[in-house]
Amino acid sequence: MTELILSLDLCDRRQAASIAESCAPYIDAVKVGYPLVLSAGLGIVQDLAGLGLPLIADFKVADIPNTNRLICDAVFSAGFDAVIAHGFVGPDAVRTCVEVAHDRGGAVYVVAEMSHPGAVEFFHGGVAERIATLAVNCRADGIIAPATRPDRIGRLREIVGRRTIYSPGVGTQGGDIDTVAGLVDGVIVGRSIYEAEDPAAEAKLLSRIRR
Ligand code: C5P
Protein backbone atom coordinates (compact mmCIF):
# COMPACT_ATOMS: atom_id res chain seq x y z
CA MET A 1 0.00 0.00 0.00
CA THR A 2 1.22 3.51 -0.77
CA GLU A 3 0.62 5.88 2.12
CA LEU A 4 -0.83 9.36 1.78
CA ILE A 5 0.91 11.77 4.15
CA LEU A 6 -0.52 15.21 4.81
CA SER A 7 2.08 17.98 4.98
CA LEU A 8 0.47 20.43 7.39
CA ASP A 9 2.33 23.63 6.50
CA LEU A 10 -0.24 25.99 7.92
CA CYS A 11 0.50 28.74 10.41
CA ASP A 12 -2.79 28.85 12.29
CA ARG A 13 -3.10 26.25 15.05
CA ARG A 14 -6.87 25.89 14.97
CA GLN A 15 -7.07 25.76 11.17
CA ALA A 16 -4.26 23.20 11.05
CA ALA A 17 -5.92 20.97 13.65
CA SER A 18 -9.29 21.25 11.97
CA ILE A 19 -7.96 20.39 8.49
CA ALA A 20 -5.98 17.46 9.85
CA GLU A 21 -9.07 16.15 11.64
CA SER A 22 -11.25 16.40 8.53
CA CYS A 23 -8.62 14.63 6.40
CA ALA A 24 -7.76 11.97 8.98
CA PRO A 25 -9.94 9.19 7.52
CA TYR A 26 -8.10 9.43 4.20
CA ILE A 27 -4.48 9.82 5.28
CA ASP A 28 -1.83 7.64 6.94
CA ALA A 29 0.36 10.22 8.71
CA VAL A 30 0.77 13.94 9.28
CA LYS A 31 4.01 15.80 8.60
CA VAL A 32 4.60 18.92 10.68
CA GLY A 33 7.44 21.35 10.02
CA TYR A 34 8.82 24.71 11.02
CA PRO A 35 5.96 26.85 9.63
CA LEU A 36 3.40 25.28 11.97
CA VAL A 37 5.55 24.67 15.04
CA LEU A 38 7.11 28.15 14.97
CA SER A 39 3.70 29.77 14.54
CA ALA A 40 1.52 27.60 16.72
CA GLY A 41 4.01 26.20 19.22
CA LEU A 42 4.84 22.61 20.08
CA GLY A 43 1.39 22.27 21.67
CA ILE A 44 0.12 21.49 18.17
CA VAL A 45 1.54 17.99 18.66
CA GLN A 46 -0.91 17.40 21.49
CA ASP A 47 -3.75 18.77 19.35
CA LEU A 48 -2.89 16.26 16.62
CA ALA A 49 -2.20 13.30 18.93
CA GLY A 50 -5.91 12.51 19.18
CA LEU A 51 -6.03 11.69 15.47
CA GLY A 52 -4.22 8.44 16.18
CA LEU A 53 -1.95 8.96 13.18
CA PRO A 54 1.86 8.91 13.12
CA LEU A 55 3.32 12.41 13.37
CA ILE A 56 6.47 13.15 11.37
CA ALA A 57 8.66 16.09 12.42
CA ASP A 58 10.03 17.68 9.26
CA PHE A 59 12.81 19.67 10.88
CA LYS A 60 15.42 18.58 8.33
CA VAL A 61 17.86 18.20 11.21
CA ALA A 62 21.35 19.19 10.04
CA ASP A 63 23.79 19.87 12.84
CA ILE A 64 26.72 18.37 14.72
CA PRO A 65 26.00 15.08 16.50
CA ASN A 66 25.49 16.62 19.95
CA THR A 67 23.02 19.21 18.69
CA ASN A 68 21.25 16.60 16.56
CA ARG A 69 20.87 14.51 19.71
CA LEU A 70 19.34 17.40 21.65
CA ILE A 71 16.95 18.20 18.78
CA CYS A 72 15.86 14.58 18.32
CA ASP A 73 15.40 14.10 22.08
CA ALA A 74 13.10 17.12 22.08
CA VAL A 75 11.24 15.89 19.00
CA PHE A 76 10.43 12.49 20.51
CA SER A 77 9.68 13.95 23.95
CA ALA A 78 7.15 16.23 22.29
CA GLY A 79 5.31 13.18 20.97
CA PHE A 80 6.48 12.85 17.39
CA ASP A 81 6.88 9.37 15.91
CA ALA A 82 9.51 10.16 13.29
CA VAL A 83 11.95 12.87 12.28
CA ILE A 84 13.34 13.99 8.94
CA ALA A 85 17.08 14.73 8.92
CA HIS A 86 19.57 15.91 6.35
CA GLY A 87 22.30 13.51 5.29
CA PHE A 88 24.91 15.92 3.93
CA VAL A 89 26.11 16.56 7.48
CA GLY A 90 27.76 13.14 7.48
CA PRO A 91 27.45 9.71 9.06
CA ASP A 92 28.19 10.63 12.68
CA ALA A 93 25.46 13.28 12.67
CA VAL A 94 22.92 10.98 11.00
CA ARG A 95 23.80 8.04 13.25
CA THR A 96 23.05 10.17 16.29
CA CYS A 97 19.55 10.89 14.99
CA VAL A 98 19.02 7.19 14.29
CA GLU A 99 20.25 6.19 17.77
CA VAL A 100 17.91 8.60 19.52
CA ALA A 101 14.96 7.68 17.30
CA HIS A 102 15.42 3.94 17.69
CA ASP A 103 15.91 4.24 21.46
CA ARG A 104 12.53 5.98 21.54
CA GLY A 105 10.81 3.56 19.17
CA GLY A 106 10.78 6.18 16.43
CA ALA A 107 12.05 6.48 12.87
CA VAL A 108 14.43 8.67 10.86
CA TYR A 109 14.04 9.57 7.21
CA VAL A 110 17.02 11.14 5.51
CA VAL A 111 16.58 13.74 2.74
CA ALA A 112 18.41 12.21 -0.23
CA GLU A 113 17.31 14.79 -2.76
CA MET A 114 14.95 17.74 -2.55
CA SER A 115 12.05 18.39 -4.91
CA HIS A 116 12.41 22.06 -5.89
CA PRO A 117 14.17 23.17 -9.13
CA GLY A 118 17.24 24.57 -7.35
CA ALA A 119 17.94 21.22 -5.69
CA VAL A 120 19.80 20.01 -8.78
CA GLU A 121 22.60 22.50 -8.09
CA PHE A 122 24.04 20.44 -5.25
CA PHE A 123 22.12 17.16 -5.04
CA HIS A 124 22.90 16.01 -8.59
CA GLY A 125 26.23 14.68 -9.81
CA GLY A 126 26.30 11.77 -7.38
CA VAL A 127 25.56 13.54 -4.10
CA ALA A 128 21.99 12.22 -3.69
CA GLU A 129 23.24 8.70 -4.37
CA ARG A 130 25.94 9.09 -1.72
CA ILE A 131 23.42 10.41 0.79
CA ALA A 132 21.08 7.48 0.08
CA THR A 133 23.98 5.08 0.63
CA LEU A 134 24.83 6.87 3.87
CA ALA A 135 21.20 6.54 5.01
CA VAL A 136 21.39 2.77 4.47
CA ASN A 137 24.77 2.48 6.21
CA CYS A 138 23.53 4.51 9.17
CA ARG A 139 20.45 2.26 9.47
CA ALA A 140 18.01 5.07 8.83
CA ASP A 141 14.46 3.89 8.24
CA GLY A 142 14.22 5.45 4.84
CA ILE A 143 14.80 8.44 2.62
CA ILE A 144 12.97 11.41 1.14
CA ALA A 145 13.11 11.57 -2.66
CA PRO A 146 11.56 14.03 -5.12
CA ALA A 147 8.17 13.36 -6.71
CA THR A 148 9.13 16.01 -9.24
CA ARG A 149 11.78 13.65 -10.70
CA PRO A 150 10.44 10.07 -10.87
CA ASP A 151 13.56 8.93 -12.73
CA ARG A 152 15.63 9.94 -9.73
CA ILE A 153 13.35 7.97 -7.41
CA GLY A 154 14.11 4.89 -9.52
CA ARG A 155 17.85 5.47 -9.17
CA LEU A 156 17.59 6.02 -5.41
CA ARG A 157 15.38 2.93 -5.02
CA GLU A 158 18.23 0.85 -6.46
CA ILE A 159 20.36 2.05 -3.56
CA VAL A 160 17.94 1.82 -0.64
CA GLY A 161 16.21 -1.39 -1.70
CA ARG A 162 13.17 -2.10 0.45
CA ARG A 163 13.75 0.77 2.84
CA THR A 164 10.97 3.34 2.94
CA ILE A 165 10.87 6.13 0.37
CA TYR A 166 8.59 9.07 1.12
CA SER A 167 8.15 11.54 -1.68
CA PRO A 168 7.03 15.18 -1.60
CA GLY A 169 6.49 17.41 -4.62
CA VAL A 170 3.20 16.29 -6.18
CA GLY A 171 0.48 18.70 -7.21
CA THR A 172 1.60 22.27 -6.59
CA GLN A 173 5.28 21.51 -7.26
CA GLY A 174 4.35 19.65 -10.45
CA GLY A 175 4.78 15.96 -9.64
CA ASP A 176 2.08 13.50 -10.75
CA ILE A 177 0.72 11.51 -7.82
CA ASP A 178 -0.31 8.47 -9.86
CA THR A 179 3.12 8.18 -11.49
CA VAL A 180 4.95 8.50 -8.19
CA ALA A 181 2.63 6.34 -6.08
CA GLY A 182 3.83 3.16 -7.78
CA LEU A 183 7.47 3.97 -7.03
CA VAL A 184 7.39 4.93 -3.37
CA ASP A 185 6.02 3.88 0.00
CA GLY A 186 4.34 7.17 0.74
CA VAL A 187 3.47 10.39 -1.04
CA ILE A 188 3.64 13.64 0.93
CA VAL A 189 1.04 16.23 -0.10
CA GLY A 190 0.65 19.72 1.32
CA ARG A 191 -0.88 22.62 -0.59
CA SER A 192 -2.93 20.50 -3.00
CA ILE A 193 -4.89 19.33 0.04
CA TYR A 194 -4.87 22.15 2.58
CA GLU A 195 -5.41 24.92 0.01
CA ALA A 196 -8.26 23.05 -1.67
CA GLU A 197 -11.76 24.42 -1.23
CA ASP A 198 -12.64 21.15 0.48
CA PRO A 199 -9.43 19.61 1.91
CA ALA A 200 -11.17 16.44 3.07
CA ALA A 201 -12.67 15.86 -0.39
CA GLU A 202 -9.26 16.38 -2.00
CA ALA A 203 -7.61 14.01 0.49
CA LYS A 204 -10.32 11.45 -0.25
CA LEU A 205 -9.68 11.82 -3.99
CA LEU A 206 -5.92 11.41 -3.57
CA SER A 207 -6.40 8.49 -1.20
CA ARG A 208 -6.94 6.35 -4.32
CA ILE A 209 -3.18 5.69 -4.10
CA ARG A 210 -3.72 3.73 -0.85
CA ARG A 211 -4.21 0.43 -2.68
O1 C5P B 1 2.76 21.99 -0.52
P1 C5P B 1 3.62 20.86 -1.01
O2 C5P B 1 2.84 19.61 -1.34
O3 C5P B 1 4.55 21.28 -2.11
O4 C5P B 1 4.51 20.51 0.28
C1 C5P B 1 5.63 19.65 0.25
C2 C5P B 1 6.21 19.53 1.64
O5 C5P B 1 7.31 18.63 1.61
C3 C5P B 1 6.74 20.82 2.23
O6 C5P B 1 6.58 20.74 3.64
C4 C5P B 1 8.21 20.80 1.90
O7 C5P B 1 8.97 21.54 2.82
C5 C5P B 1 8.52 19.32 2.02
N1 C5P B 1 9.66 18.81 1.26
C6 C5P B 1 9.78 18.95 -0.11
N2 C5P B 1 10.87 18.42 -0.76
C7 C5P B 1 11.80 17.74 -0.06
C8 C5P B 1 11.68 17.58 1.31
C9 C5P B 1 10.58 18.12 1.95
O8 C5P B 1 8.89 19.53 -0.75
N3 C5P B 1 12.79 17.13 -0.70
Automatic annotation (TrEMBL):
Active-site residues, as the UniProt record annotates them: 58 (for ompdecase activity), 60 (for ompdecase activity), 60 (proton donor), 63 (for ompdecase activity)
Pathway: Pyrimidine metabolism; UMP biosynthesis via de novo pathway; UMP from orotate: step 2/2
Positions with a binding annotation for substrate: 9, 31, 58-67, 115, 168-178, 190-191
EC numbers: 4.1.1.23
Broad class of enzyme this protein falls into: lyase
Keywords attached to this entry: Decarboxylase, Lyase, Pyrimidine biosynthesis
Pfam families referenced in this protein's UniProt entry, alphabetically: OMPdecase (PF00215)
GO molecular function: orotidine-5'-phosphate decarboxylase activity
InterPro entries membership: Aldolase_TIM, OMPdecase, OMPdecase_arc, OMPdecase_AS, OMPdeCOase_dom, RibuloseP-bd_barrel
Stored SMART domains: OMPdecase
Reaction catalysed by this enzyme: orotidine 5'-phosphate + H(+) = UMP + CO2
An annotated GO BP: 'de novo' UMP biosynthetic process
Every Orotidine 5'-phosphate decarboxylase domain range: 3-206
Biological role stated in the UniProt entry: Catalyzes the decarboxylation of orotidine 5'-monophosphate (OMP) to uridine 5'-monophosphate (UMP).
NCBIfam families the UniProt entry points to: PRK13813.1, pyrF
Quaternary context: Homodimer.
Family recorded in the similarity comment: Belongs to the OMP decarboxylase family. Type 1 subfamily.
HAMAP family: OMPdecase_type1_A (MF_01200_A)
Record's protein name: Orotidine 5'-phosphate decarboxylase
Organism of provenance: Methanoculleus palmolei
Name of encoding gene: pyrF
